[in-house]
């Protein structure tokens, strides 16, 4: 059994009347590269802030390396890149890196760290003079300044162009290949797909799915097929079927095959519509209902 580095057990966290996390349980094991996927306001940043010891849960428990995230000794072995890049604009790149690195017993070598994130030659530049993408890369690089065992990257590639995004993906992959554990958040399945093996889908403070990227991709690729028809025969690949008067809604991973089967079965239908499901819709539908016949 792989060692668990971070763990949330039935965690609830509110902000005023907003429940940001609602009974979330999650284990992050050593060597994993986990993507937290979910729409705006899903609770991803809140979860990272709890693991990083920046916030405390209202109920449930959060553990980091088997202890409390509030313990500074445990926090030495993590790195975090927050969603907002707030670095002092008058300082030079070199000064910021040295300042952050100095906080750790095993700080990274500056030159090597900057190289990994495509910032070589920028040591003397002031933060305020960097481009948005360069600032972002620096903020992500700082998460690795202490040679952490576990890093939390909150939307690491926001604001990066394609090339910079790929370079950052490579840096994250290198860290992972060297035995590092990564938790990253994203709104985009493609980003999670490019990096992660395991994806945890979060929405409205709850974990909707915790599975392989392939399994989640299948669910996310579901289509809603709706049509007006009478009694329907058994159709292939229907995950869920629902009737509302004469309107039938079918959920399937392969809409083309479904439509071909409908035509072959020679059942009269009108008003055929096919549309993608949102990730949320797909997961809610699948987790809330068992397949049933129309
Ligand atoms: N400091 C705060 N004060 C009040 N409400 C907050 C605070 N932080 C988060 N929230 C609320 O908690 C919920 C979860 O927010 P959170 O930032 O964790 O989501 P997220 O998944 O990271 O979203 P995004 O992708 O937009 O960053 C949202 O409804 C948000 O408005």
TrEMBL record:
Recorded GO MF terms: ATP binding; ATP hydrolysis activity
One BP annotation, GO: response to antibiotic
UniProt-listed InterPro entries: AAA+_ATPase, ABC_transporter-like_ATP-bd, ABC_transporter-like_CS, ABC_transporter_ATP-binding, P-loop_NTPase
Protein name in UniProt: ABC-2 type transport system ATP-binding protein
Record keywords, A-Z: Antibiotic resistance, ATP-binding, Nucleotide-binding, Transport
Recorded GO CC terms: plasma membrane
Source superkingdom: Bacteria
Annotated compartments: Cell membrane
Topology of the protein relative to the lipid bilayer: Peripheral membrane protein
Domain ABC transporter: 6-229
Main location: membrane
């Amino acid at each position: 059994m792989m060692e668990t580095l971070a763990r949330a057990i039935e965690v609830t966290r509110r902000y005023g009347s907003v429940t940001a996390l609602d009974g979330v349980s999650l284990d992050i094991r050593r060597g994993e590269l986990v993507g937290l996927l979910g729409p705006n306001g899903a609770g991803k940043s809140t979860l990272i802030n709890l693991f990083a010891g920046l916030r405390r849960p209202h109920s449930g428990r959060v553990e980091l390396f088997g202890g409390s995230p509030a313990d500074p000794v445990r926090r030495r072995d993590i790195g975090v890149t927050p969603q907002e890049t707030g670095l002092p604009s008058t300082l030079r790149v070199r000064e910021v890196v040295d300042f952050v690195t100095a906080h750790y017993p095993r700080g990274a070598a500056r030159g090597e760290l900057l190289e990994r994130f495509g910032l070589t030659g920028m040591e003397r530049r002031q933060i305020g003079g960097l481009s948005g993408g360069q600032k972002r890369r620096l903020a992500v690089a700082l998460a690795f300044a202490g040679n952490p065992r576990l890093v939390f990257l909150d939307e690491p590639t926001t604001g990066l162009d394609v090339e910079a995004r790929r370079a950052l993906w490579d840096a994250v992959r290198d860290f992972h290949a060297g035995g590092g554990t990564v938790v990253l958040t994203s709104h985009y399945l493609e980003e999670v797909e490019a990096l992660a093996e395991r994806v945890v889908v979060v929405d409205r403070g709850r974990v909707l799915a915790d599975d392989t990227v392939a399994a989640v991709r299948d669910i996310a690729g579901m289509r809603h097929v709706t049509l007006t028809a009478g009694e329907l025969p058994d159709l292939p690949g229907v995950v869920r079927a629902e009737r509302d008067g004469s309107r039938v809604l079918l959920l399937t991973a392969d809409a083309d095959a479904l439509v071909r089967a409908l035509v072959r079965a020679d059942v009269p239908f009108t008003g055929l519509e096919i549309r993608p499901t949102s990730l949320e819709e797909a997961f809610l539908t699948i987790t809330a209902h068992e397949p049933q016949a129309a």
